[in-house]
Amino acid sequence: MFVVAATALRSSELLSLRWADILWEERKIRIVKSWKKTGVDGSTKTPCSERDVPMGRVLAHYLHEWHKQTPYAKPTDFVFPSMNRSGRVPICSSVFCSDYLRPAAKAAGVPIHDGHRWGLHNLRHSLSNWLVNKAKENPKTVQGILGHSRIQTTLDLYTDEDLDEMIAAQDKFIDAVGFERETVQ
Fold first, then answer.
1. Which of 89, 92, 83, 116 lies closest to 102, judged by CA?
2. Among candidate residues 99, 101, 92, the one with its CA nearest the CA of residue 37
3. Most buried of the four, 57, 98, 139, 177, by CB within 10 Å?
């Protein structure tokens, strides 16, 4: 799901989104509630989870296109409604993952083994990991996107070692102490 891949929303935050939460002019998505397993809106995971998530140009375009196509486009309607339940509740995340997301990921070449859990949270993890390790974004920026109350949570849970970075760091040290890498094959 492109929205989670681009925003790193928690699935409960995604499910609770109504069109009124999409602030088109301000180019952001307001996160003020989360969908509970009991089938109602509830509070977010933590106070820091209440936040405004940026909505870039491409994401805004795709959301706008979906808004034009969905039969549930009133401000109080769910952004991702259950068509089976006539839009009264959001789509079920586990059904969405098993019927659409997982098959699409496998078709795109993502190595997902049978019995291995893989879903919306993997998209959240992928974005945060890429932002910190590849794009070199400030971890505080990533913390804000994820809605973590502590930077350590972002760094501990949502970043991984990067072999290329580790090799580059090692090479910087080797260069600094005067070894010549060019003569080594």
1. 116
2. 92
3. 139
Distances (CA, A) of 94 to 75, 145, 159: 25, 23, 25
In whole angstroms, give the CA distance from residue 20 to residue 73: 10
pTM (global) more than 0.90 = no
Q: What percent of the chain has pLDDT over 70?
A: 95
* Structural domain spans, the chain: 2-176
CA distance 157 to 107: 27
With left for phi above 0 and alpha for psi between -120 and 50, is residue 58 left, alpha or beta?
Answer: alpha
CATH H superfamily, domain 2-176: Intergrase catalytic core (1.10.443.10)
CA 103 to chain centre: 18
